[in-house]
Amino acid sequence: xxxxxxxxxxxxxxxxxxxxxxxxxxxxxxxxxxxxxxxxxxxxxxxxxxxxxxxxxxxxxxxxxxxxxxxxxxxxxxxxxxxxxxxxxxxxxxxxxxxxxxxxxxxxxxxxxxxxxxxxxxxxxxxxxxxxxxxxxxxxxxxxxxxxxxxxxxxxxxxxxxxxxxxxxxxxxxxxxxxxxxxxxxxxxxxxxxxxxxxxxxxxxxxxxxxxxxxxxxxxxxxxxxxxxxxxxxxxxxxxxxxxxxxxxxxxxxxxxxxxxxxxxxxxxxxxxxxxxxxxxxxxxxxxxxxxxxxxxxxxxxxxxxxxxxxxxxxxxxxxxxxxxxxxxxxxxxxxxxxxxxxxxxxxxxxxxxxxxxxxxxxxxxxxxxxxxxxxxxxxxxxxxxxxxxxxxxxxxxxxxxxxxxxxxxxxxxxxxxxxxxxxxxxxxxxxxxxxxxxxxxxxxxxxxxxxxxxxxxxxxxxxxxxxxxxxxxxxxxxxxxxxxxxxxxxxxxxxxxxxxxxxxxxxxxxxxxxxxxxxxxxxxxxxxxxxxxxxxxxxxxxxxxxxxxxxxxx
Amino acid sequence: xxxxxxxxxxxxxxxxxxxxxxxxxxxxxxxxxxxxxxxxxxxxxxxxxxxxxxxxxxxxxxxxxxxxxxxxxxxxxxxxxxxxxxxxxxxxxxxxxxxxxxxxxxxxxxxxxxxxxxxxxxxxxxxxxxxxxxxxxxxxxxxxxxxxxxxxxxxxxxxxxxxxxxxxxxxxxxxxxxxxxxxxxxxxxxxxxxxxxxxxxxxxxxxxxxxxxxxxxxxxxxxxxxxxxxxxxxxxxxxxxxxxxxxxxxxxxxxxxxxxxxxxxxxxxxxxxxxxxxxxxxxxxxxxxxxxxxxxxxxxxxxxxxxxxxxxxxxxxxxxxxxxxxxxxxxxxxxxxxxxxxxxxxxxxxxxxxxxxxxxxxxxxxxxxxxxxxxxxxxxxxxxxxxxxxxxxxxxxxxxxxxxxxxxxxxxxxxxxxxxxxxxxxxxxxxxxxxxxxxxxxxxxxxxxxxxxxxxxxxxxxxxxxxxxxxxxxxxxxxxxxxxxxxxxxxxxxxxxxxxxxxxxxxxxxxxxxxxxxxxxxxxxxxxxxxxxxxxxxxxxxxxxxxxxxxxxxx
Lengths: 555, 555
Description:
2 copies of one chain form a homodimer. Chain A is an alpha/beta fold and about 550 residues long. Helix content of chain A is about 35%, strand content about 20%.
């Protein structure tokens, strides 16, 4: 069995200008980063807005489990399969963060015969977008501390600064730190901490900005803290949105790459899927919509988090909502939702599979409230028994859920033809779209609708701190923003140990965080770690270059 | 008067593949980063080592003053002037650090009609080399703290970790911090701090590495700290040199750009000129030597620091020592060395000029001990009076120092023809080269020779801490390494307020720092700030994009 990186290195890539030419883009429209990566030039991006939008397919999944679902793999494989079937298709995907690549993940560019290439570059520095964000974020941090050090004309309260620092690294030691030690020449001591770069509000902003002007306005609107008279202060009060925009002007441009089978893919932006909205950039999705007949895109975690945010936070900035939604499920993951332990996954177990099906059917029903068709992609793994596969298909049919087996990991585009056949008729339909809530709703109504529809919760409770914050937000008029829920991805509830379809539960919001520049309010339903740690044996231990200069250890 | 950025934006650039083609490099040899920047491919770099080396000109300067010298401008302008005179010439320069660009400097790509382009890119993220270094450096930091957190099998003493963290930002608040707060899940609390990325040992390593294997060996040899039995521990003990090499494999490749007049320039690497050696990469200089008849390169600060390190630390890794050395001086700076205040600089003052000449003549005599010719480039500023210019030329002639007026900032290649005519005859000569010291000398002998010849000091004293360290280094066999002196750049002595040519002084070494991977020992003669702060009005305040998307505020 070949590894992902062996398959990737055994693939022959076309020059990226050739991939672009097939999309009708001239060489001038592509800023090359080596022969196989390119950013789409800014004037081209703006021109493409005028073109008609193609069809949009959103790929989401059941709640993730340690068994793995293969959502990115299905996204890539579905697009390859559509192209193989003669439908001009593009991919819009998030770009990986270096921290998890060096930590547990070792890479995030699909797998098997459904990968975006060059996977070594995409998994490492790629075109530098993450690094530009790290620079811009920390430049703002330095400017804030420098403002205080140089006289603090804005009277910024050092104990109420709302802007942390970031690095694209998994580093638990930086979560909570004290800065400014060593006497007055080093500034003023205060508590601070680092998040991982993908958790930066600037990443969310980059992924929601329509153009450079919109980017600059959102950056200007970032809340940096409060003065001692309790008034909010923003980047525009520091007057540094120009420099920050400058640092992000290239990162704003989507990155064009290709799959193993030459399908063009825009891999751009990667906001955290809990304290941010977890999808690739608006500009990448919009550009793909203009360039292709069908765009396949993906949202983070399960449908309750990722798809909901895609539909409620991202869709208002797109020309259209998804024409169809593909929900990825695996036998293994459904069995885990049904209660099997990871150690027993290899055993056939129809009982836990049937029990776990409740998770899938909840997501299908929930997504169906939007009015858009939902198709289940059953992502086949080697150990799935024929009886298990048959049972799941029967359960879907009994519930009138369209389902298709996919084997793109093992077989590439050949393995996705059943999904293509099942999906295509739904793309021809035109249907109304209903988001989970209306952004004009009362804030608590929005929260309730979201939790009831997306999670199947009975309702939402606010902890005292959250209630107090909501009051403040209402006074400031910030409650008109959409909600970005930070909840465990592992359960429909806010308790990560409750798999399947938990019943009779309520969601408790501990705290809110304003993302004034990005334009949403994060609602924290549980602890969210915004700086991961490294495992005992990080993936970095096994990486390197062999004697021929070939990369090894990414997957 | 046009600003630097206006001149830059008014220039028309050739596609970088055209610049490369004129050097005999095929399109395959260039990894494009947009149309005007390219990295030279690794196989091409290795092939070029076989070609014969052209002539090498090192540009250095008198001790810097607040009046400015224009060393990079003369370097770029000299190369343009040589090309205009029909001599095929290339430039090898350092790349700027984003921290100072956002802080005081606003840019560092030459000035006036002697600039490397595209200056906006070079001054911002360029091709991501700095960011790759930041990533690799902090990945190692995270792996070290993770090692301690996950059981500390190497028994690393948390109070003796020799590896800090870095960011390419000016941020005084990060100089001294405490990390790992918040309980055991966040690791172990300890004192730490951030340096600016250009101060990272990895930057020095990148700039000295001959190839990927050499890079990996040097990374493996980085000292990370000591165990509780007082034994040194290295990156190779953590076994992560492979992952670090992977993160730096693209940053190792020199970046090809062009000047306003189309002169090819390799702009690559930028180590600090105090705690590191302050010159662009060995690979860039070597590659330029193979591609051009003449290579013009530059070393940081004044000749006592930058040129000395070039000659003693970098030259052993090059095929040749410089064929000639150009020493940049300005009337303004010499007057400041003679004692005039910055406020009075506009006044003609022959007395302070003559007094300040002692600084220039010391550098010329010191550099002459290497056996290589030294030519003074008198970099003309608008306010220089005819009498001052005449006096300086007379002083040089009286001391038999070749001198040429340069006006490349204002006039481009036309303004450098006198320097070309003065320099060229010296390039035809073949002379022996003598470094300031022999690396095999006793360590104290090396220190004494360096201080006496380069600084005109009477000798060197070791503070008790330094003496104790030297003893440890001798026991470990590390005293065989060259010295990297970290001294104030503003004086030949270790007292920054002593301009001109101080007499009867000794140099005191407070402390040593081992750079075991880079392969030198830093000798600290005074306080060296390895993380700059931002000024009251950072350059970032005045940067941005105008309505047409044009960058403003870099210079």
